Amino acid sequence: MKPAPFAYLRPSSLEEALAALAGEQGAKVLAGGQSLVPLLNMRLAAPSMLIDINALPDLGHVRVAEDGVRVGALARHAEVLASSEAERAQPLLGMALRHVAHPTIRNRGTTVGSIVHADAAAEMPMVLRLLDGSVDVASVRGRRTIPAAELFAGPLESTLAHDEVAVEAFFPGLAPDAGVAFQEIARRHGDYALVGVAAHVETDGDAVTRASLGFVSVSDVPVVVDVTHALGDPAAKALAELDPADDIHASAAYRAHLVKVLAPRVLAAATDHARSRAGEATQP
Amino acid sequence: MTTKMFGAKVPRVEDQRFLRGQGRYVDDLLTDDPRLLHSAVLRSPHAHARIVDIDVSDVLDVEGVVAVWTYDDLAGAMAEPLPLLIPHPALTHGRTQYALAKDEVNYVGEAIAFVVAVDRYVAEDAVSRIRVAYEQLTPVVGIAAARAATSAVHDDVPDNVGARMEQENGDARAAIARAPHTLTLELDVERSACTPMEGRGTVARWDPDTSRLTVWSSTQTSTGVRGCVAAKLGLDLAKVDVVTPDVGGGFGVKINHPWPEELLVPLAAMTLGKPVKFTEDRREHFISSAHERAQQHHVEVGFDDDGRVLGLNVEFWHDHGAYTPYGLIVPIITSTQLLGPYKPQNYRVAFESLYTNTVIVTPYRGAGRPQGCFVMERTMDAIAAYLGKDRTEVRSTNFIQPDEFPYEHGLVFQDGRELTYDSGDYPASLAKLKALVGWDEFEDFRAEMAAQGRRVGIGLACYVEGTGVGPYEGAHVHVETSGKVKVATGLTTQGQGHQTAFAQIVADTLGVRFEDVEITTGDTRKMPYAVGTFASRAAVMSGSAIHLAALRAKEKALRIAAEALEASEDDLEIADGVVSVRGTDASIDLGTIAVLSNPLRYAFDEASKAATQFSVGDPGKPPVAEDDEPGLEGKDFYSPPRSTFANGMHAVIVETDPDTAEIRILKYAVVHDCGHLINPMIVEGQIHGGVAQGVGGALYERMAYDESGQLLNASFMDFLMPYATEVPTSIDIDHLETPSPLNPLGIKGAGEAGVIPSAAVFAAAIEDAEGFPITSMPISPSELFELRLAHTDEPHPTTTPTTAG
């Protein structure tokens, strides 16, 4: 379990990193390494070069503004989780991050890295997708913003070009009359979810004006289902768009069953959350 | 015996070192030796294939590669199959693998080529460049495929049957035919594995100047490894030393030996004249060490209105994997220990031990007992359910009673000796367990939970465990002139706390300070006669041997002290390393006695001056008497007539989520009887660890082989060893101490106990919660969900309680 040989570069500026990446077709970017390093050690990946971005300046931020939370490429899950400002601006971040692996992994793994790793069994790609966030990427060709809806191309495949580095993720803040919730079922504490479901609900008075659900581990890419018009049976609507599969930990039927259990629960919790927030907002 | 140290909760002296990262494991050795070479193994990617060609021509071009071996490079005994360690007359078709595969591979992971290089990175690079041409053969995976025998694992083994064995006491089938009630059960247990934190590992150094080989191995038997290495490499035993450093867990897998690497590493070290190391990685451990547990059972039982078993007929199929290096130990243990604390009037057991194209099967903590316990306890629960009786009542009816010991079952145990229980008090244990878990109050609790929409169940399981099997262990106790006591015993330590427990025995028996005792284990230079650490035998075997050796040292100390103090031995006592004459001020410390015991020519310090030839002894006599030896030492061996039988009972209360089918542990209770406790803290630690491992085996772990023989979960990401978050936050433990009459300390083994009843007790509790039979373990929430679907037409369980009042 030792990686195949690779060149190693630890640039001190983003420009240097981008130039190196553009110049080496087989290069991979190393941030937290929590997914990449096991792949290297199992020899399931054999990049010709690792470009370690951990020495780059100004990418470790968790910045909260009016419109939402901006997370730099080197911000660790634990740092995002520890930010009470971020949690206030978008409570779903904390709700989901608590389920991301274990503290030791969260101490090293980066939220942006997890997102562009594009694992549909991971929490944070789904969260970004559910919240309609985006990722800023940079390359020698310039910078662009990829909306979450356009970020995930397939299993473990994002739409970043080879020469692009994700530098920041943007999670929109939660509106005052909106609510979120997250639940997942995993075999062991901190494992990948058998099924995870998040909900994002917007309300106007007692009425739910918009409701959507995001799903973990029941599709190839993070899937978000609009259930605004299926509040009575959100799971049925969702299952029409999901593709639960058998694996060694659970049958497809069991996963579908968990969708049915969790979807209404999470939707109800998010609705309650929205109403309690709306209530707080109108209090003098 | 009950004195100050024996029986006390003495904190483990090992833990300071382990917890501070100061343990020294095989991989830590020789790291500062610049000559050290590293190795990697090419392993079969196929479960069953003929090897057509191996091309290593690209390998030697890799910079840093030193050498590569395939089967064709092996000669003499190394080219013969690995030893079949425990032959048995019933094992008519035993087969073992070669150190490197010859012509055919029989499981994914089987060693094919061995590469030595300057580091492990380069060695793995080189392995990836070896080209092997295979001719695919049909793999046989799982018991069903092995029984169907449409394909053979080994061409010369008909029907994939390595062994057929049958034992019977009375006439079980006739008794069942006559019985008022009968039941038939089909029961399954899947594969799991030991998965110690430290995998296998071996380092060897050959000294060409002295023609001496030193091997360090992460093993449960250094003497066994030594014997194999000497025989395979054609070396005199006296030229081979095997040392076992700290071992990061064994749980059984490291009793199997020699592993291919345990021979190839010394061979490479001798050939290359440089030290060589092999450190197994986690994936290798999953696919090339050993597994256990997979069995299918067919049970027929006949019983009377009280639930008394009149006849029990068990036929089972044991998956032993691709080869049988460890013989029939696991299925023999299953077949005999299945009986637990019960006395069926007539018992027949027959098994077939089957070949499959999967990793070999050797003992894993419990060693066949968890399966036997599962089968017997499922049967007891089925009888109780059938008769509408309380499950504890049916068990009580079948218990061997305290006045029936020694109890002879009329069968032969794994050690070739009669299966005779030495002692126990099962009714007392059950009474303790019922109180501990709140058995009689459970229906109230069930109702209370049901009112909240929650579903709970309770289960119990009883087992008897033959521990401390022979043939023997020995010990050497040496009192130095400083008064420090150095003790050597040959069996190995893989985390049990032997340093602590054995020192407690020595402190009491010899009368010295606990702190002055140092224990060495698993070093053939210090104690070349030993068997190994397995079968919960270390405390019983080496503990007893150490006690006997310490008695001999004490005897000599008293003899010399009596002479020196001009007193009668009967008036002497030893405490804290000082021999004194009772009721007087006269005393002499053990260090001084050690000086006097060893007449010297040369003085090298103040103490030794007192022992030089002009200081001691009668000039008219030989300095060492004819029937004496120099030094204050004692050496002895302990060899019991048969095993001692510990026992225990576990109960668990689980909650099954009505929606998600998740299984939560609400309460876990253990009553344990391993005779006198040397150190209750260590015993409880063993139980905690065993229960944790049992939770894994019952609810999380399995070996997910696909049809082609690929192990799909060969990592800790997918092999679900429970975390601290999955095991019970507390385990209620109560002890019973029924001493063994077979050894001087009255002790029984405790190492495996915690894991034995796990599958049985969880199956019982889940069945009680759900109301349908649980016949296959382990069980996952997904499987429980599927079972619920299959039983949806049946009435809800909690309305038909299977537990009376």
From TrEMBL, chain A:
The keyword DNA repair does not apply. InterPro entries: CO_DH_flav_C, CO_DH_flav_C_dom_sf, Diverse_Substr_Oxidored, FAD-bd_PCMH, FAD-bd_PCMH-like_sf, FAD-bd_PCMH_sub1, FAD-bd_PCMH_sub2, Mopterin_DH_FAD-bd. Signal peptide: none annotated. Residues 1-176 form the FAD-binding PCMH-type domain. It comes from the Bacteria. SMART domains: CO_deh_flav_C. Keywords: FAD, Flavoprotein, Oxidoreductase. This is FAD binding domain-containing protein. It comes from Nocardioides pinisoli.
TrEMBL record, chain B:
Residues 613-632 are annotated as: Disordered. InterPro entries: Ald_Oxase/Xan_DH_a/b, Ald_Oxase/Xan_DH_a/b_sf, Ald_Oxase/xanthine_DH-like, AldOxase/xan_DH_MoCoBD1, AldOxase/xan_DH_MoCoBD2, AldOxase/xan_DH_Mopterin-bd_sf. GO terms for molecular function: carbon-monoxide oxygenase activity. It is an enzyme of class 1 (oxidoreductase). Its EC number is 1.2.5.3. Residues 20-138 form the Aldehyde oxidase/xanthine dehydrogenase a/b hammerhead domain. It holds the Pfam family MoCoBD_1. Keywords: Molybdenum, Oxidoreductase. The keyword Oxidoreductase applies. This is Aerobic carbon-monoxide dehydrogenase large subunit. It comes from Nocardioides pinisoli.
